[in-house]
Backbone:
């Protein structure tokens, strides 16, 4: 069982918390990490090529002329692909770049990324941020006390609807997430990762429930 110091907002150790080895003692497999990062970025990607088919363009509800007797070719709609202003036949539509990975692979990649942060001493736990009101100045001071003020930091909160969100969100070097929605990509691109005690306990609780 691995342990992490629980720090106060000045960077002093006040307590310790146990973390299962299954989470922070994973052997890193770069192939799995690469697949998960590729999956995450692909799912965030969207296609931009799009044209309208004959069912999507405006108009065309009325037959242009009667079927017989005009000398013209038969026509049922002005939105036919044969007409100017009509729909496009077999035109491009937005492509879905996402692909599926097994849940166990995604979960394992997250633990690998956490293990990497733990082994490098870049995984931290604070007791709580305790913002009485939103204050980016106080948030910046806390990161300075933890000696991560100039680094890219991933802050893991229990939820994203408190003063912590309003205090950290204007800082360009800070990513905010919750224990439930954090992903491998965000962990890897951050220099440091900071849990609150509550968010880490909730993460460990969900881990225990999933394992049992």
Residues:
């Amino acid at each position: 069982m691995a342990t992490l110091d629980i720090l106060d907002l000045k960077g002093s150790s006040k307590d310790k918390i146990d973390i299962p080895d299954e989470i922070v003692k994973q052997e890193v497999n770069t192939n799995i990490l690469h697949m998960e990062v590729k999956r995450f970025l692909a799912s965030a990607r969207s296609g931009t090529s799009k044209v309208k088919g004959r069912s999507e363009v405006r108009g065309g509800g009325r037959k242009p002329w009667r079927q017989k007797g005009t000398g013209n070719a038969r026509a049922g709609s002005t939105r036919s692909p044969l007409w100017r202003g009509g729909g496009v036949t077999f035109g491009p539509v937005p492509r879905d770049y996402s692909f599926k990975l097994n849940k166990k692979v995604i979960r394992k990649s997250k633990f690998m990324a956490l293990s990497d942060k733990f082994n490098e001493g870049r995984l931290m736990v604070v007791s709580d941020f305790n913002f009485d009101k939103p204050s980016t100045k106080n948030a910046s001071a806390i990161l300075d006390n933890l000696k991560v003020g100039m680094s890219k930091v991933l802050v893991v909160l229990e939820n994203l609807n408190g003063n912590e969100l309003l205090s950290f969100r204007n800082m360009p070097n800070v990513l905010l997430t919750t224990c439930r929605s954090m992903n491998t990509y965000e962990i890897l691109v951050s220099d440091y990762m900071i849990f609150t005690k509550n968010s880490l306990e909730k993460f460990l609780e969900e881990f225990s429930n999933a394992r049992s």
Notes: The chain has a mean pLDDT of 91. The first helix runs from residue 21 to 24.
